[in-house]
Amino acid sequence: MLTRLEVDGFKNLLGLVVDFGPFTCIAGENGTGKSNVFDAIQFLSLLSSRSLIEAAYEVRGAAGGERSGNPRELFWNGYESQDRHMVLAAEMIVPECVEDDFGREARATSTYLRYEVELGFQPPSGANRTGGLVLLGERLKHLNHSEARDRLRFPHNKVEFRDKVVKKGRNRPDFISTTFHDEQVVINIHQDGGSRGQPKGALASRAPATLVSTVTSSDAPTILAARREMQAWRRLALEPTALRAADRYTDPQTMDVNGQHLPGTLFRIAQQEPHDDPERVYARVSGRLADLVGASVDQLSVVEDELRELLTIQLKESNGLRLPARSLSEGTLRFLALCVLLEDTTVEGVLCMEEPENGIHPAHLPAMVELVRDLAVEPESAPGKDNPFRQVLVNTHSPGIVRAVDTADLLFADTVLQKRPDGHLARALRLRPMTGTWRAASPETDAVALPDILPYLTFAPGAQLTLEGL
C-alpha cells in the first residue's frame, strides 16, 4: 500500500507531497498534469524490475504517448534545464511474507518502509543520441511502529488494520543507504535480521539499474518485500479489443492491465469457488453487473468450446437473448472487468485507473464509483481473503464522478506557480484536499470546498475563475 508519495523534478511534479488512503480520487481539468502522478507511480514500479533506461522508455512521454522515447521528457523542463535532476520517495506498507525468484519464502523484518531514489540525466554521447539516466542515490529504511499512528492519517481501525499490517521495525541502519567514498557515490545493501556484517556496496555511476531491482533471493527479505510491493503497482488501461477477445485453454488466467484474458480469469475464479459451485461466482458477477442502470442481466457464464479449446464470456439478458462479450458495449465491458477484478482475491497492491467514466452513461456513474471504491481494502477490518489488501487511485475530470465520491477521498488538481532554486518560476501540479477532511487537518494545508471545484470542472477551458486565494 502506497501511503505517501513525494516527487520533485519529474515532469511538472515539483515539491509534490501527497498522502493516500485505500481509495483516492484525483479530480481536475485536463492539462493540469494529474496523470503525471500515475506516471511517477508507474516509474517507481518499473524501476523495481527494469533497468534505468528501460523504465524511462516505458513511461508515458511528455506528449501523452505510450512510451517516453527520450529520458529528458521525464525531467521538469528537460530540454532547457542544464541540471536535470529528480527525487522520488514512497512510503509504503509491504507484505510481510513474499516469495523470492527461486520459490523460497522470505519474511520481512519491517513492513512499514520509506524508499527514496535520486536520478540525473546522462547527456548523449557517441552512438547514444538520446542520453540516459544515472543513479545519484538510493535509500530504503524502516519507519517505526510508533510513527504509523501519526503518518497513517486516513481513518482506520488500529487493532484490526494498523496493528495487523504494520510490523515493528528493527532498530538498525537502513536496508539500502547512500554514502560517499573517494568522491564517488556508493549504494550499500545492508544485511537483514540485525546482522552486523559488512554492507555490499556498488558505485552508483556504474549502476545500470536500482539496487532494489537486483534483489531476487530471500537473503535480503525486507528489500525483496519492498520490491514485490512496488512490482504490484499497476496502471489499468482497459481496452475494448482486449476485453472482447476469447481465451485459449493455454492462455494465462490472470487479467492483464489492458483487460486481456478476462474469460480465463473469470473461469479460474469460478473453478476455485470454495463451495465447488462456479455458478455462485457467476451469479455474484452478474448481480453486480445488473447494478449498471439499464443492464438487464439475467445470467453470465464462461462458455467452454472444447473443439476449438476456447473460453468465451456470455451474457444472457432477461428477454432470453444471449450475447457474447464481443457484442457488449465498451462501458459494459469495462464495468464487467472491474466486477471480475472484485472477485479475484489474488490481486493486491495499487491499481491506478485513468478516467473510469469513459464509455459510461452519466446515470451509471454512481454504480461505477461504488464498484471502484469496493475494490479497495476496507481499513476498518483486517486484510485477508475476504478483504484483499488492494489500493485504488483514480483520476477524473467528470463532475458526475466527483459528486459520487466521498469528499474525504477527493483531491482537487490544479496548477500553481513555484519558484525553483535557480530563481525561475515554474507551473507545477498542486493537489488540494477538501475542507474538513483528514488531509486538511493541518492548518497550513491549502484546502478547497466542494462547491468551488464543481463549476471549475464543468466550465469550458479558459472560462474558469481562478482558485488562487481561496
TrEMBL record:
Taxonomic superkingdom: Bacteria
UniProt cross-references to SUPFAM superfamilies, sorted A to Z: P-loop containing nucleoside triphosphate hydrolases
Record-annotated Rad50/SbcC-type AAA domain positions: 4-43
Entry keyword DNA damage: yes
Keyword field contains DNA damage: yes
UniProt cross-references to Pfam families, sorted A to Z: AAA_21 (PF13304), AAA_23 (PF13476)
Residue span(s) of domain ATPase AAA-type core: 284-402
Keywords: DNA damage, SOS response
PANTHER family hit by this protein: ATP-DEPENDENT ENDONUCLEASE, OLD FAMILY-RELATED, DNA REPLICATION AND REPAIR PROTEIN RECF
Protein name: ATPase
Native organism taxonomy: Bacteria, Bacillati, Actinomycetota, Actinomycetes, Streptosporangiales
